[in-house]
Amino acid sequence: MLDALERKIEQFINELNDETTQKLYAQIPAGKRLRAALILKIAPHTLSSIKLAAIVELIHAASLLHDDVIDDAFMRRNKPSINASFGNKTAIMLGDILYSKGFYELCSIDTKVAQIISNAVTQLSLGEQADVVLSKKFNASKHDYMKMIYQKTASLIEASSEAAALLANKDRVVYRNYGRAIGMAFQIIDDILDITASSKQLGKPAMSDFVEGKTTLPYIYLYEALQENERSKLLSYHGKKLKEQQLAWIEAKFKEHGIIERCIHEAKALALEATLMMQQEGNESLQKIAQDMVDRDF
Amino acid sequence: MLDALERKIEQFINELNDETTQKLYAQIPAGKRLRAALILKIAPHTLSSIKLAAIVELIHAASLLHDDVIDDAFMRRNKPSINASFGNKTAIMLGDILYSKGFYELCSIDTKVAQIISNAVTQLSLGEQADVVLSKKFNASKHDYMKMIYQKTASLIEASSEAAALLANKDRVVYRNYGRAIGMAFQIIDDILDITASSKQLGKPAMSDFVEGKTTLPYIYLYEALQENERSKLLSYHGKKLKEQQLAWIEAKFKEHGIIERCIHEAKALALEATLMMQQEGNESLQKIAQDMVDRDF
Description:
The first copy, chain A, has helices at 2-15, 19-25, 34-42, 47-70, 82-86, 88-106, 111-134, 142-167, 172-196, 199-202, 208-211, 217-225, 228-237, 244-256, 259-281, 284-294, and strands spanning 75-76, 79-80.
């Protein structure tokens, strides 16, 4: 299954008939292929579903290329990012090439599938923009955070599930909801790991998000839990390079108020919801994907 | 006609339902709407043709946003570019939003139209990349230059004409060829004007292209015409900030060998070819577009 996927992606890249693009694309590590795996666990393996899975992975790769430029991220999957190795401009152009090739191939699958996926890309782009806008100051609104991670991360996972269900003549609404739930859980966990994982595991200093101005769910809950004078302290730390002692204070406050546990619980609730949906559908491998996402050390 | 076009574009932007995007989009000057005008002079004014025209203008705007980041261009249509006013990242994200909204809307017109336009966007992105790659050293190959401007500039104009012909049940090949010819003429003229127009007309210093490493058609012909020792001199000027005296030498050599006239002639030949095609089709306004493109002071 995954072999056919990789060959289809390779074929798309070769069809571009451009040496520069082929060389650059070869520098991008493949990643987990989560979206493709979802599609190929929902729909039977036909030319359409394999194409769809390859397209979604191309689009996801394009979004990460632009993402890394926007976030000044120099590592991706434990390798230097394309922008780090070849500059921002190269990453922008390669992203545009992969996006447009993805859209071109989408046209030949099914109109409704093309609409579902391209709408998700709009949401993803709006989410990226919202992430940057929200990072300009401390964001205390859980609603704004949830909307942003829905757009930035969950929308393409949701769309992948829904489009695969459409190809498979399954219940689109159930698979759509499943995709959204695991997409939201995935981003919440990613945001927790930024706090709890070691800098070695992350390939960047811990708590980078907050230093970069990103008020993820743990910080929103922490703000709610703190007293007035502590809140001012937290706000004064936002978006700055912090000293050991300041990082330690935040960590202690997370512990004191059980914030990380609360966030893990929230991610697990989403994963459980997703698991139950797939129990009803009788799809065991999708239950496992949802469970594996949250069954880990934090 | 153009009023309906502007209202459709406005509707697309409003449907994104995002304040940041609306505010930023309002900062982009409308431009000449060449591609939309072509579409609406080829196809009857139906919902589909007006939508297609609006989509192509969104896509064109997106490509210029990324273009200006890649070229470090700070002026666009005599106003500061989005990257100059709001930074590269904002321009990248806004471009992604407009591209994906354009692709989403394309799905609801016609599959073949969607393929023609999205394939042109891939060509356009590959052309942008080729432009950067070619700029790294002096490019003496006319073939590489022509392929690059075809991809970067002519492909979307060609695709607009062809897609409009498809909607209008006209001869796709004729309109496709017409679009390619005026697209090529357009870029050659743009490259000539970089040399012949005043810096005030251009909003940037004259001969910027060569200083930025771009070997446009006049420089390729000049290189061919020069003697060995003069060629070395020209090569030594490539991609550098030049002194008055050095610029004057290039200008004198252009005059001596009649290079600019030769390039104008080549653009006019393309425009004439396009005009003759439309004479046969009996489409006077498209003849006029082709003629107006080259009937100007250089």
